[in-house]
Every structure is written in C-alpha cells, then in structure tokens.
Write a structure and sequence with these properties.
The model has no long low-confidence stretch (mean pLDDT 96). The chain has 9 helices and 14 strands. Helices cover 24% and strands 27% of the residues. The chain has a single domain (4-313), classed as Carbon-nitrogen hydrolase (Nitrilase/N-carbamoyl-D-aminoacid amidohydrolase), CATH 3.60.110. It has 314 residues and is of the alpha/beta class. A hairpin with a 5-residue loop joins β12 (249-251) and β13 (257-260). The protein has helices at residues 21-37, 62-66, 79-88, 146-149, 177-184, 211-226, 277-282, 288-291, 294-297; strands spanning 4-11, 42-44, 91-102, 105-115, 121-126, 158-161, 164-170, 190-195, 229-234, 236-239, 242-245, 249-251, 257-260, 267-274. Bound molecules: 3-methyl-2-ureido-butyric acid. The site of 3-methyl-2-ureido-butyric acid has 11 residues, from loops. It holds the Pfam family CN_hydrolase. This is N-carbamoyl-D-amino-acid hydrolase.
Length: 314
Amino acid sequence: MPRFINVAAAQLGPIQRADSRRDVVERLLAHLHQAHAMGCQLVVFPELALTTFFPRWYLEDPAELDAFYEREMPGAETRVLFETAARLGVGFYLGYAELALEQGAARRYNTSILVGQDGAIIGKYRKVHLPGHAEHEPWRDFQHLEKRYFEPGPGFDVWRAYGGVIGMALCNDRRWSETYRVMGLQGAEMILLGYNTPVHNPPAPEHDDLSMFHNHLVMQAGAYQNGTWVVGVAKGGKEEGCEMIGGTCIIAPSGEIVAACSTKGDELAIARCDLDLCHSYKTTTFNFDRHRRPDAYGLITSRRGAIEPEHLAA
Ligand code: CDV
C-alpha cells in the first residue's frame, strides 16, 4: 500500500517582541486551516515558533527571560492548537522554549514536539547542538546566547507515526552530518526541522553571502545520504532588526528540493511525500548494512589526536 504524507512546511515571517502568544497562535492556526484546506495531514512549524528569537539578547532579569518559556504543553494559550489539530485531523511539529521542573530543579531546553492527527503528543525532542555562546559578547551586532539559555538534549530519536518513521531536529543540528546519520541508522524516513538563521554571522561575516547555499546544502546532503525526506522550516524576514534567511523547503530522499517558499513571510510550501521513495536509496547506494564500514570509523570518535596544520601548531 502506498505511503504518502501530505506535508505543509509552515514558514513564519518575523515575530516581534511585542507580539503576544495569542497573536502568534492565531498565525499558526491560520496555517493549520490553510494546510487542511490543501489536503495536508502534517504541518511543520519553525524553531521557537511561539516567540521572537530571544537568544539574540543578553537578558539579566530572570522574570523577563522566563516569559519566553512554556511551562506546560499544551498550556492555556497553546491548547487551541491541539484542539484544532484534532478537529481538522491535521497534526503538527512545533518548536518552543521549554522550562521543565525536574526533581524540583528548573531546566531549560530548546524543544520540539510531534503531535498526531488526534491532537495528542507523539514525541518530544530537545535540541542537541546548541550554537553560539554563554557569556555576553558586546562586540556582536546581536547575541546568540543559546548556550546560556538552554541545556543540550540527550540525543536523536525516531517515532513510528503518520505511517512511517519520523525524526526531529532543530536548526543548528542540520549542519551536523551526525544528526541525520543517527536518525538514518534508526530508519528515519522523514526528518522535521525548524530553524532561525540570521543572514549575518557575527564571528564569520565572510559566510554571510553563502547563508542560503549552506542552508540548503546541509539539508539536501543529509536527505540524500540517509535516504530520507527532510522538511526544513524557517522563521524569515526582519525580526527585531535582525534579517533572517527564510528558505523553507521540502527535500526528497534524492536530495532534490520539491517544494519551497518564495517569500520571507508567513507561507506554506506543500508536497505530497511518498515515504516509499526512501526505499530505493536505503536499499542501494545507502544500504547501511552492506556498505557502511563502522569498523573503519570506530577510531575517530573525538578530535583527540587531530593533526593541526603546521602553521597553527605551537
Ligand atoms: N538557531 C540556530 O541554531 N541558529 C544557528 C546559527 C545561525 C547560530 C544556525 O545554525 O542556523
């Protein structure tokens, strides 16, 4: 029996700091309704989709910072998303800042959840690769304080859902080949990934002109090398003065982009994704059991022993 998922990659334009949760949830609901009207079963929202990308600020007031986190999911303002999902039969992936109480201690994560067509949470993922820095760096045009505001999650899982095997990742994870491979080894057929990427990279401004190229390069390579669909969804446009790249797209296991947003605002890119397309890649070129050589990779598990170029050696 063919296994198709009609997926909507639900790009968001900028979310300003003054926008309330209610304003943002209204925009997410509009996406859910439009996706339903277009025959979709799954809607993928960006990373930190309920607020502006707050790690761009060094915030000293704990109450001000805590206001960006969700203490429960669903909560009072987000419950309507789950109810609408159940009513329409359209599930979703949602990125948000999570404040969890674990053994009485507050823990903060950059989190995504996968919600089924019945409105119930299927799985939760906590971002593994946290980019940026932990201390205030005033020389930057804007901060990237994910290492201050979040702690890393434990790893990558996949879930049996939507008739296939679904994985989740968040933003900077997409630049690391291990992200896709760890899920590829678990049989992932579709990886959902929300992101917030500024055009300007303060530590390496020479990369700025390549930001969209790198965005697509890593996701297309990850899809092809693991025979999986990748749905990459951006927050785009000028958010609090910071230009975000956009570039939302749906990538087939061939590595080809099959649907893409053409603006930097609220927009859906839709594709009818055949999960069985993965099979041809997973059983030939990327048949892991036949062709991978873990015995040859085993020694290289860390950078210890890496050889520095001579001119950098002390
Ligand atoms: N939110 C992110 O993880 N952003 C990172 C960069 C720009 C620091 C990214 O890899 O896109």
